[in-house]
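User: Can you fold this complex?
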Amino acid sequence: MATRYGAMEQPELAAGEERASFGDRFKGFLPRLPLHAVLIAVIIIWSVPTIALLISSFRSPQDIASDGWWNALIPPWDFTWSNYDAVLNQRGMGRAFVNSLLITVPVTILVLLIAAAAAYAIAWMEFPLRNGLFLVMVAMLVVPLQMTLIPVLRLYVNLSIDTEVPIIGGRVFGPNSYLGIWLAHTAYGLPFAIFLLRNFFGSLPRDLFESAYLDGASDLRVFFRIVLPLSMPALASLAIFQFLWTWNDLLVALILLGDPNLAPMTLRINSLVSSFGSSYQLLTAAAFVSMAVPLVIFFALQRYFVQGILAGAVKG
Amino acid sequence: MIGRKWWVPWVWMAPALILLTVYLAYPVLDTVRRSFQDRRSENWVGFDNYEFIIKNPAPLVADTHSALLNNLLWLTLFPLIVVPAGLVLAVLTSRVRYEAVAKSAVFIPMAISFVAAGVIFKFMYEYNPNIGTANALLEQIDREPVAWLQDTRAPQRWITDSGPADAPGPLQINNLALITVGVWMWTGFALVVLSAGLKGISTEILEAARVDGANEFQIFRRIILPILMPTIMVVTTTLIINALKIFDLVWVMTGGRFSTDVVATLFFKQSFVVRDFGVGAALAVVLLLAVVPVMLISLRRFQFQEEIR
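Assistant: Here's the predicted assembly.
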């Protein structure tokens, strides 16, 4: 378009073009106003509950009990750290935070290792009933977890092994032991993990495996040198999911970890809710401490999180 | 690998197989067995526990009918709200430049625990309009505050103060308040999956339709919807399974009180509070039987995916 005019006129024209496009953009904006209104309303509605929690967790108990969190937005601001102080130091929430990590991190590692080994066998080894076995494993996704807890608890009571090592709560295995809850969480995570990894491993190019096997590489070598490095995106998605599920779990801990010294954050907060039902200064701060880790993971690794959701939309 | 010994794959799968057997397969079989035994799992009682669920002889201790109906309400209402909401939002967000922000806002609740969500919404639903946001909004339009989590009245009583005080069946204000929390948590899931499906539709098809004079609504109806149908089915089955198994949310918010029990929470109470293992186990089996058909549909779809792979 500009070529029809002299070079001298170009800057002026460009400016004119910008003005026109701004006008166009404004005209284009008007019919889209309802669209923007709806979307902005949705963003607000979905964010308000979390924002209300966050703001309230920084207000004094008197403020929370006397007027709504929205009033705290009006200056002068009067925010305080005291709720977090109380929750982390006095209510054993600091300990619970550490417990949550002590439960979640080993479970995540165990699930990745055990599921990856099984998925490798199912994807790249020939054996009878291969597909049938895989379907049975995936089908276990739908078993309601509550259903398994009584039989598991009975098994634990019968097989309980006591010890004096303090870190694992005086018990190697059984109810109120970390080994007990690690294995339980790992088992519950396996159906989804095997499903996700088997599909990912199965989609790796066949040539890669054939040439490695021809070169005389062992299964262990192929697994650690080819399969795992190439599957990093799937492993990352899975690790995030497993971490969040275990971190957010209440039910399994409620049944298998009764000891308050071993309890994770979800359990502590749940008992805070029962005993301090309307002490919102404690509840809001405690809830936000428990949300902090998932939120950081979510914002830092959103891409893998979404990939995991898409790959595993079958998970119930 | 050629010449691999027959037992090699079994060694690789052994840890997984052992854990799945001990923690999932054995408990399911054990629960089925206990569902045919008495409350202490000592004597065989035939179908007595299932009869208990159907006849509902002790509604004050364990209202099985209310739990079944509440689950049915979850099963219908929850996917019926979440799937269309996710679909509409997927289409709308794809048309604006702040797509990522809008999607994140809806998606964040997926990452937090039911316990945290429970605290968040107890706070939102607080009766005192100087604390609870929901009742503060009601006050703005001159309505009385509502005890959202306790109120078993029908929703029309809240709107008009007339009509029957009790809704037919489970349609109670508190059930709807709980389902709202579920919607808040799960719409992000539907949105993200459907939005990825939407991105997979070639823009050429859509452009061609626009050139042919189709309006946006026709494009949605005649092109986007049919192409997205398999994805919509994936999302719907996942949500149905979740609605059937719903436990944490109800447990954390009401503990099943005020007639909000679902099958999973009633099972939990029967097993761990009332300590009637027979009825508890029978409830769990009912739940499993309800999930199995949905699972079969998922597996068939999964096999179909295998074929086209």
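The radius of gyration of chain A is 27 Å. Confidence is low (pLDDT under 50) at residues 1-19 of chain A.
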